[in-house]
Amino acid sequence: SRLKMSAEEILVRPVQLGKDFCLYFDELECDALCKEKTLHRVLRNVNSQLLVVRPDLNVAAFEDVTDQEMQSGKGMHFSIHCYKTTTPLAGMPVAFSVQVENKSYYMCCERECGEMTIKFKEGEVPKEIPGESNIIFFKKTFTSCCSKAFKFEYSMERGMFLAFEEEGYLRKLILKKLSTDEVDETMKMSL
């Protein structure tokens, strides 16, 4: 009697021949993410203000920036790391990092006193993420008719988006829950 191949054996299929002529196999784990490309961008809100990160003050806020300040660009030139995904419906998985004073900081979310807060921590963004990660956001078009603007949904808490909140004179970067089907301009960002 012939041996039947197990379903697992059938699933592993060679995908590409690498530059070193080694055979690579596709990761079959659905939620594993692998870095594909990096975009270098500034992030603007609806008021055309730029997102500026100040790690020393542990704050990120949208500010009016002069051309001169933009040239020196401290804390406002972001690397947007795009990851390959097997579930494109959720949006393109991205992670954000920013250079300040020759150090790299990545953006992540942490729960503090029962509330989700945005943090910038020193370090690099990983090339591969095995499963869930508090640095991953799903990049989605802001509305179907507005393909040039985006909103970023936190991957570990659906319905929570990057947004800004007025706090005194600051327009601070926060995570905000989106009520169903409403259009919230504080979540609208252009790259």
Describe this structure in words.
- This protein has 191 residues and is mostly beta strands.
- It has a single domain, classed as Trefoil (Acidic Fibroblast Growth Factor, subunit A) (Trefoil).
- 6% of the residues lie in helices and 50% in strands.
- The chain contains two helices and 15 strands.
- The protein has helices at residues 7-11, 67-72, and strands at residues 14-17, 23-25, 33-41, 50-54, 59-63, 78-84, 92-100, 103-112, 115-122, 128-129, 137-143, 146-154, 160-167, 170-177, 189-190.
- The strands form three sheets. Strands 3, 6, 7, 8, 9, 10, 11, 12 and 15 form a nine-stranded antiparallel β-sheet that branches.
- A hairpin with a 7-residue loop joins strand 6 (78-84) and strand 7.
- The protein starts with 6 loop residues before the first helix and ends with a strand.
- InterPro entries: IL-18 (IPR015529), IL-1_fam (IPR000975), IL1/FGF (IPR008996).
- Pfam families: IL1.
- Its main location: cytoplasm.
- This is Interleukin-18.
- GO terms for molecular function: cytokine activity.
